[in-house]
Design brief:
Blueprint (H helix, E strand, L loop, with lengths): L22 E2 L1 H8 L3 H9 L6 E3 L2 E5 H10 L7
Antiparallel strand pairs: 1-3, 2-3
Helix pairs in contact: 1-2
């Protein structure tokens, strides 16, 4: 099968885009924020961060994580 007849989703190349997931689990959210998985679970347990729960799965939106970080930003006084 030639590349011209191969569907774009099956073509591999250096410029192929990777789609980032809409929702992240605790591990991915911990890596994204630098907080760690355990701290993310603690934030959920203490209901200190917004999250999406489907069944037993807890997920975070990237915008929620960015907002959480921005809300806890401390600016210098001088």
């Amino acid at each position: 099968m030639t590349e011209a007849s191969t569907p774009p989703s099956e073509r591999a190349g250096p410029h192929q885009r990777r789609l980032s997931p809409v929702l992240m689990d605790c591990k991915a959210a911990g890596e994204y924020t630098g907080f760690g998985e355990r701290y993310m679970r603690r934030l959920v347990f203490e209901k200190r961060i917004a999250y999406v729960k489907v069944g037993h799965m807890v997920r975070f939106e990237r915008a929620t994580l960015d907002k959480f970080i921005e809300d806890h930003r401390v600016d210098p006084t001088t």
